[in-house]
Amino acid sequence: PASICPVQENALQRVLQLPVVSSTCETLQRKYSSTKESHPLMASVCEVYERGVQGAGALAMWGMEPVVRRLEPQSVAVANNLACRGLDHLEEKIPALQYPVDK
Predict the structure, then answer these.
(1) 50 in the Ramachandran plot: left (φ > 0), alpha (ψ -120 to 50) or beta?
(2) A single Pfam family, by name (predicted)?
(3) What was the pLDDT predicted at 1?
(4) Which of 56, 76, 82, 93 matches a 20 to 30 Å C-alpha distance to 38?
């Protein structure tokens, strides 16, 4: 792994691309979808929850926008590079991060 993230890549993207993370997310999504399909009452509860999460996410983004605009691009880049270096270290020390959950 590179010690500095390329411009188009960021630390969050790298974390989401780790096989252990992506396979966990896929497994959770499948379980969530199958639970919603097989339990109608649970599906309605989940839909209410999903709408609440979307609303909260939109509100959080609206609230953070002024802060993000004030941050200098350099500060964001420095934080991203530090996070990428931390990921490099974790990937080196914990090889299991490169394998799907089932392995």
Answers:
(1) alpha
(2) Perilipin
(3) 47
(4) 56
Helix (H, G, I), strand (E, B) or coil at 90: helix
Q: Which of 8, 46, 24 is nearest to 103 (CA)?
A: 24
Asked if residues 14 and 5 have their Cβ atoms less than 8 Å apart, the reply is yes
CB 15 within 8 A of CB 96: no
Q: Please, how many CA atoms are within 13 Å of residue 42, restricted to the half-sphere of its CB? A: 9
Tokens of 30: 């499948």
Within 8 A by CB and 6+ apart from 3, the residues are 84, 85, 88
Nearest CA among 21, 7, 20 for reference residue 80: 7
**Cβ-proximal residues to 62 (8 Å cutoff; 6+ apart), any chain:** none
For residues 16 and 25, the answer to whether their CB atoms sit within 8 Å is yes
